[in-house]
Amino acid sequence: MNTIAMKFPGRRQHKHYFPVENKTPLTNKVNSEPKLARSYIVGIDQILVDIEAKVDDEFLTEFSLKRGMSQVITDEVTHRLYQRLKDEQLINYEFAGGTIGNTMHNYSVLADDRSVLLGVMSKNMQVGDYAYRFVSNTSSRVDLNYLQPVDGPIGRCFTLIDDTGERTFAINAGLINKLKPESIDESLISNAAALVISSYLMRTEEGDTMTQATLKAVECANKAGVPVVLTLGTKFLIEKEPEFWRKFVKDHVNILAMNEDEAQAITGITDPLKAADACLDWVDLVICTAGPEGLFMAGYVDEQHKRATEYPLLSGAIADFNRYEYSRPMLLKDCVNPVRIYTHTAPYMGGPDNIKNTNGAGDAALAAVLHDLSANVYHKMNVDDSSKHLQPAMTYSSLSQISKYANRVSFEILMQHSPRLSRGLPEREDSLEQAYWAL
């Protein structure tokens, strides 16, 4: 595998990418360990544990759960539900979860570097409880020092899978929505490479403070020019208030991540490529996963920096849409003569023979995109005079390259039960030719 998007901002082999072997004029010795500035990303999440179990329709009916939907359940129902699953040995797996928690973990595994997670965490933690499971299953590279302590439980999300493979989500919030605005460190946000949030943070009840805390962080990021990344989370939430989400995205978001169902909910367009194109009216970069169709991405580049693809031109809802997929995406405001660019990547190796889990595949794809974005910030911080930065690009790699990387990472999740990576990608893969990673 020969792709620089997978090499940094972690400490691994950075000598191949930075001029760190120059001899110092005083000692005439090689300075092999320079002190490099570090980049990081910040994410806000409802801290919870995912519990996956196989159930039948009667089980869903017993607990008044609507098949295929995401629903909030009370503490009493949560206790009965969990006990029933335990008694009948229906639980397959218990993992640290949360869409942004998954993304931060996967980013830190890929980048081998720091990310920061904001949210709440139980003040009193015991071995084996939900809070313990979350912390013990999160990468040590994820900085949890900014979590707000609370006197009570974190959240629990039950993923109940029936015989057809349909997933029904039952969520007990615990105290996950009690993050206070005063717990948001403005300097932490303003110095980050990106701020990552989800639509779930806006689904709160009266008395909760999560939404206010999130809006404070978003306002801080907007003011500091830090890209705001929004993952749409679930179509059921978006289709309730599509106008609200369109306005919020247009006013505050730079990068939008979604699947084809969420894309339809916010745009009203079924075709994922056309939906991604429509979202460019509001944001600078779009990531749309489309199941067996693969991954679509859309963005902007200035006319003078566009690069034509060397692959055959593809036509779908947009003719020859991948013509400039070798371009590096830019913020629209940095483009004098903006050109819309698109790319598509088919499922890696045709997709897994046996998909074990789709939960978290989109989070993994987003983590790969964030890795490349952070790599660009990292490189600029340390090699500002590089010709790479004559173009004010958002990312280090081309749109095509990022899409391949994101697609490859999501494949790892599809092959396992956990929504989180346990290791980074291999340095080389015999199944891939070098040409796969060509820019």
TrEMBL record:
Binding site for GMP: 98-102, 203
Extent of the signal sequence: none
Amino-acid positions noted as binding ATP in the UniProt annotation, renumbered to this chain: 289-294, 362, 407
Pathway: Purine metabolism; GMP biosynthesis via salvage pathway; Purine metabolism; IMP biosynthesis via salvage pathway; IMP from inosine: step 1/1
InterPro entries for the chain: Carb_kinase_PfkB-like, IngK, PfkB_dom, Ribokinase-like
Cofactor needs: Mg(2+)
Record-annotated Carbohydrate kinase PfkB domain positions: 138-299
Protein name: Guanosine-inosine kinase
